[in-house]
Specification:
The complex is a heterodimer of chains A (221) and B (538). By secondary structure, chain A is an alpha/beta fold. Helices cover 33% and strands 31% of the residues of chain A. In chain A, a hairpin with a 2-residue loop joins β4 (57-62) and β5 (65-69). The radius of gyration of chain A is 17 Å and the shape is globular. The two termini of chain A are 18 Å apart. The model of chain A has no long low-confidence stretch (mean pLDDT 90). A two-stranded antiparallel sheet of chain B has the order 1-2. In chain B, α4 runs parallel beside α14 (291-315), α9 crosses α10 and α20 (418-428) packs antiparallel against α23. Classes of the chains: A alpha/beta (221), B mainly alpha (538). At the A-B interface, β7 and α2 of A face α9 and α10 of B.
C-alpha cells in the first residue's frame, strides 16, 4: 500500500505554475529524494503533501484517505501525522530545546510522564543530552539541526518531509548528519521525502530518486 | 552597516545636523524648563517643588493620571490585539476599510470623539430617539468623568495596539508558525508561538498608549476629569504661572522617563524589528464558515465606538448651512492646517531619515541617546514640551522664532521625530547592508550612496514616514494650542477655542470638517497604495 499518493496535482502562485500535474506514489518505509534545481517546485510539493498549501487541482491521498481535493483541505496539517524539517529549521526562538521538542506532544495531549520519557529518549538518540535547557540561539548549526530532527521524530510520524535540511552546514558536518539521518530512518522505519539539489546528498540518502524540472516529475527510479 | 568614523564631511554635516535639530527643538527646551524652575531671583531653590510632595491634591492628581493611563492601556491592548490578530492573520473580508474605520479616531484631534459622544447623549441628540431621558442623563453623567474619559481615550488609542500587532505579525518568519501548524491547530499555535513572538510589540504598544494617555489633555479637559496634564495646561494658559505649570509637568516627565527606561531594558532593539511593509509571505488562518460571524464580531466594536458617535456628530449639525458657516469661520484655519502639516511632515521626514539612518548604522557614538531622546520627546506630554519651548524662545532676541510659524515647526519636530525615524529604521533594516557597500566599493561618495541607493530602496518607508508625520501634524492640538502665535491658528485650535461658547451645531460642523480634512486624504492614499508585496501590511 502506498503511504502517499498524488494524482495530477497542480499549483500556481501569482499566475506562475509551480507544480504541473504531478502524479507520484510514495511507498511505506522508502527514502525518496526529490532532486532538482532551485525553483523547480520541490518545496511546494512538500508543502502540498504537508497540507500547508492546497493544490489548485488534483488529489492527495494519505494511506488511501483523501487529504486534499483541489483547493479543499480535507485533512488539516496537524491531523496528517507528518513530520517536517524546514530548510531554515524554523526552531522557535522563545522556547528551549526541551520546549521545542515538547510542543507537538503537548498539542497531541500526550500525558506528562510519557512526554518526558519520549523526550529523554529522543534527546539521547540525537545527541542533545545536557542541552535541553538551552535556547536555539545558544546552539551550534549541527546542534540546531539535531533539535529539528528530534522535534519531528518525537511525534513518531509515519512520514517525515525534509526540505534541504543540511544546506546551511559545511561539507563534513553535512555528510555526518546525513549518515545519522539514514541511521535514524532505518532504526525507526519512517517514510522519508528528502528535497535536495545536491547529487552527493542524493546518493547518500536515497533508496529512490525523483527528478523534478519546471514543476514536473521527469524521472523516478 | 557601520559608518563609524565619519570620514566624509557630508555625512558628518547631515547626521550631526539632524542631531543638532533634535537637541535645539526638544532637548534644550526641556533642560531650560527644569533649570528655570530651579532658580528664583538668581538663586537655586526647590521651593516650587516642595508643594508638590506636601499637597494631598497633587497625590490625588497623580493617582488620577496613572489610573486613567493604565486603564486606557489595558483596555486598548485587550481589544486591539485580538482585532489586530484577525486583521493580520486571517482571511477576514473587508480588512482594509474596516482597519481605516478603526484608525479614524486616532487621525483626528482626540477631543472630537469626546464632542461626538457628548452630542450623541444630549437631550436632543441621536440617542434621544431611542432612549428615555433618565437613561440619557445617566449615560451623560457617566461620560463626564473617569468612565467617559476612559471610553473616549480607549477609542482614540485602540488603533495603536491593533496596528502594532499587525506590524509585528508581519515580521514573524512564517516558517515558525508552519512548523507548529504541522502538529497543532491554530488556537494553540497562536497561544504558544505567535503571541509569544509578538509579545515585545504588545508590551511596546501598552507602554506607548500609557504615555500618550498620560499626557493627553484635551479629552480630560472637555470631560472634566482632573489629571496632571490638564492642571499644568490651565496653570500656564489661564494663570500664566510658568513655575506651577513646570511643577505639574514634572511628574509626567519622570513617569515618561521611567517607562522609557523599562522599554530600553526589556525590549532593546526588538521594537525596531517591526515590518510595516508586507513581504507578501504570510501564514494565514482560513476562517471558513466562521467568516461571517467573526466579521460581525470584529465589526461590532467599530460600529459602537466609531460609527455611532460619528453619526451623532453628523446628526447634531442639524442644518446644512452650518457647514458653510463653518467654512466661513474656519476656512483660513483649515488651509493653514494643511500648509503647516505639509511643511511639518516634509521637515520631519528629512530629519527623521537622517536620525533613522544614524540609529540603524550606529553612525555616531551617541546614536542610542539620540534614539531615546526622540522617543522621550514623543512620549512627553505636548503641553510640557510646549511650556519648555515657550520658556526658551519667548525673548525679544528670538521673536523671529517665537512670533512666527517656526515655533510650531520646532514643536512638531521635537514631538513627532520619533515617528518618521522609527519607520525609517524599520525600513532600512530590510535593505541589505551589501547594497550600500556595493555602491561604496564602486567608488560612490556618501551623499551619492544615500541619494541613489539607500533612498530609492527605502521609498515605501519614506512615503509612510511622510504620511504618518502629516497626519499627526494635522491632528495636533497639544503643541499648537500652547505655541500658536497671532494669525497662526490651526483648525484643531480654532475648534477647541470655539467650543467654550460656540453654537453646538457649528462646533459639530467644524468637527465634521476637521474629520473629512484628515480622513479623505488618508483614505485616498490607502486606496491607491499597492497591496501585498511591496505594499503596506494590510
Amino acid at each position: 500500500m502506498n503511504l502517499v499518493r498524488l494524482e495530477s496535482v497542480s499549483k500556481s502562485y501569482q499566475r506562475t505554475v509551480i507544480v504541473k500535474e504531478v502524479t507520484l506514489c510514495i511507498a511505506r518505509g522508502e527514502r525518496l529524494v526529490l532532486l532538482g534545481p532551485s525553483g523547480c517546485g520541490k518545496t511546494t510539493l512538500l508543502r502540498l503533501i504537508a497540507g500547508l498549501d492546497s493544490p489548485d487541482q488534483g488529489q492527495i491521498y494519505l494511506e488511501d484517505e483523501l487529504a486534499s481535493d483541489g483547493p479543499a483541505l480535507l485533512i488539516p496539517p496537524e491531523r496528517r501525522n507528518i513530520g517536517f524539517v524546514f530548510q531554515d529549521l524554523a526552531l522557535w526562538p522563545h522556547l528551549t530545546v526541551y520546549g521545542n521538542i515538547e510542543f507537538g506532544l503537548k498539542a497531541r495531549k500526550v500525558p506528562a510522564n510519557e512526554r518526558r520519557q519520549r523526550i529523554d529518549e529522543i534527546v539521547e538518540i540525537v545527541g542533545l543530552k545536557g542541552l535541553e535547557k538551552r535556547k536555539p540561539g545558544q546552539l551550534s548549526g549541527g546542534q540546531q539541526q539535531r533539535v529539528a530532527l528530534a522535534r519531528a521524530l518525537v511525534l513518531r510520524p509515519k512520514i517525515i518531509l525534509m526540505d534541504e535540511p543540511l544546506s546551511s552546514l559545511d561539507l563534513a558536518l553535512r555528510f555526518k548528519i546525513g549518515n545519522e539521518i539514514v541511521g535514524l530512518q532505518e532504526r525507526f522505519g519512517f517514510t522519508m521525502v528528502y528535497v535536495t539539489h545536491d547529487r552527493e546528498e542524493m546518493k547518500q540518502i536515497s533508496t529512490r530518486v525523483a527528478i523534478m524540472e519546471n514543476g514536473r516529475i521527469r524521472l523516478g527510479s | 552597516m557601520r559608518v563609524n568614523k565619519l570620514q566624509f564631511d557630508t555625512a558628518a554635516f547631515f547626521l550631526w545636523g539632524a542631531v543638532l535639530v533634535i537637541a535645539v527643538a526638544g532637548l534644550l527646551p526641556m533642560i531650560s524648563m527644569v533649570a528655570q524652575s530651579l532658580f528664583a531671583e538668581g538663586k537655586p531653590t526647590f521651593s516650587a517643588f516642595e508643594s508638590l510632595f506636601h499637597s494631598l491634591r497633587h497625590w490625588s492628581l497623580l493617582l488620577n493620571s496613572l489610573g486613567l493611563a493604565f486603564a486606557v492601556s489595558a483596555t486598548t491592548v485587550a481589544v486591539g490585539v485580538p482585532i489586530g490578530l484577525f486583521f493580520g492573520k486571517s482571511d477576514l473580508p473587508g480588512t482594509r476599510p474596516m482597519c481605516l474605520l478603526y484608525v479614524v479616531p486616532l487621525l483626528v484631534p482626540p477631543y472630537i470623539m469626546a464632542v461626538a459622544w457628548s452630542n450623541l447623549l444630549m437631550p436632543h441628540g441621536l440617542l434621544s430617539h431611542f432612549l428615555s431621558r433618565s437613561t440619557l442623563d445617566l449615560m451623560h453623567g457617566f461620560l463626564f468623568g473617569f468612565g467617559g474619559t476612559l471610553l473616549v481615550l480607549s477609542t482614540v488609542y485602540l488603533p495603536i495596539p491593533m496596528l502594532l500587532t499587525i506590524a509585528f505579525l508581519n515580521s514573524i518568519d512564517p516558517r515558525l508558525e508552519e512548523a507548529a501548524r504541522i502538529v497543532a491547530p491554530w488556537p494553540k499555535v497562536l497561544a504558544e508561538i505567535t503571541i509569544p513572538l509578538i509579545f515585545p510589540g504588545i508590551l511596546f504598544s501598552f507602554l506607548l498608549v500609557f504615555v500618550l494617555a498620560l499626557g493627553e489633555f484635551s479629552v480630560p479637559s472637555y470631560l472634566r476629569f482632573e489629571v496632571f496634564s490638564v492642571v499644568s495646561f490651565t496653570h500656564f494658559s489661564a494663570l500664566y504661572d510658568f513655575k506651577a505649570a513646570t511643577v505639574f509637568a514634572l511628574p509626567l516627565a519622570l513617569v515618561t522617563l521611567l517607562l522609557l527606561v523599562i522599554e530600553g531594558k526589556f525590549l532593546h532593539e526588538e521594537t525596531y524589528a517591526i515590518a510595516p511593509f508586507s513581504t507578501g509571505k504570510r501564514c494565514n488562518i482560513r476562517l471558513g464558515s466562521y467568516k461571517i460571524p467573526l466579521f460581525a464580531a470584529v465589526f461590532s466594536p467599530a460600529a459602537f465606538l466609531v460609527i455611532l458617535p460619528m453619526a451623532g456628530l453628523l446628526e447634531s449639525v442639524q442644518e446644512i448651512h452650518f457647514f458653510s458657516t463653518a467654512i466661513e469661520k474656519a476656512g483660513d484655519a483649515l488651509l493653514r492646517t494643511f500648509l503647516y502639516a505639509f511643511i511639518g511632515a516634509s521637515v520631519l521626514t528629512v530629519v527623521g531619515f537622517f536620525v533613522g539612518y544614524l540609529v540603524k548604522n550606529h553612525a555616531v557614538f551617541c546614536w542610542q541617546s539620540v534614539d531615546k531622546t526622540c522617543l522621550f520627546l514623543f512620549a512627553m506630554p505636548g503641553t510640557v514640551l510646549g511650556i519648555g519651548l515657550i520658556g526658551l524662545w519667548n525673548r525679544p532676541a528670538t521673536a523671529f522664532v517665537y512670533a512666527t510659524f517656526l515655533i510650531i515647526l520646532l514643536g512638531y519636530v521635537a514631538k513627532y521625530c520619533a515617528l518618521p525615524s522609527r519607520i525609517i529604521v524599520a525600513q532600512l533594516l530590510q535593505v541589505p547592508d551589501s547594497m550600500e557597500e556595493a555602491a561604496m566599493v564602486a567608488g560612490a561618495g556618501w551623499l551619492r550612496r544615500i541619494l541613489y541607493v539607500v533612498m530609492p530602496l527605502s521609498l515605501p518607508g519614506i512615503a509612510a514616514a511622510w504620511l504618518v508625520s502629516f497626519l499627526f501634524c494635522m491632528r495636533d492640538i497639544d503643541i499648537t494650542m500652547l505655541l500658536y502665535p497671532p494669525g497662526c491658528e490651526t483648525l484643531p485650535v480654532r475648534i477647541f477655542t470655539l467650543m467654550a461658547n460656540g453654537a453646538p451645531p457649528l462646533i459639530a460642523a467644524l468637527c465634521v470638517l476637521m474629520m473629512l480634512a484628515v480622513v479623505l486624504p488618508a483614505s485616498l492614499l490607502l486606496a491607491v497604495w499597492p497591496k501585498g508585496e511591496k505594499g503596506v501590511f494590510i
